[in-house]
Amino acid sequence: MTDCIFCKIVQGEIPADVVYEDEHCLAFRDIQPKAPIHLLVIPRKHVVNLDDLKDSDRDLISHMMLTIPRIARQQGLTEGYRTVTNNGKGGGQEVFHLHFHILGGGKLHAL
Ligand code: AMP
């Protein structure tokens, strides 16, 4: 995806404060943090959002779900954290490359 900002981060074409990466995904600090620690976890592969996942992405999404708690622990979020994924315009998605927000480091309001 040539015009996808998160693909450009994956390719190293635009800078990001990357805190974790492996062969399938990476995590970097959100440029406009909504919590003391606000990370975005994205697949290297361009997937638009949850609606775009295929059966063949089962291992990828499983890997991401298992990796999010590891990243949170590495960031010192021992008291808990929130994960959010906005799905589609109606869900508040602004960047159309699947990402999971990790929010923590302070008291979050109840949903
Ligand atoms: P969403 O509304 O779920 O699509 O969230 C997109 C998030 O990406 C927002 O929280 C933005 O602040 C964040 N964001 C957009 N561009 C960048 C960037 N270049 N580096 C880090 N975070 C970004």
Write up this protein.
This protein starts with a helix and ends in a 7-residue tail after the last strand. It contains two helices and five strands; from the N terminus they run αβββαββ. It has a five-stranded antiparallel beta sheet, covered by helices on one side. It has one domain: HIT-like (HIT family, subunit A). 21% of the residues lie in helices and 23% in strands. Bound molecules: adenosine monophosphate. Adenosine monophosphate binds at residues 5, 16, 28, 30-32, 40, 86, 92-95.
Any chance you could write out the topology, listing elements then pairs?
Layout: H1 5-10, E1 18-21, E2 25-29, E3 37-43, H2 58-74, E4 81-84, E5 100-104
Antiparallel strand pairs: 1-2, 2-3, 3-5, 4-5
Bound molecules: adenosine monophosphate (AMP).
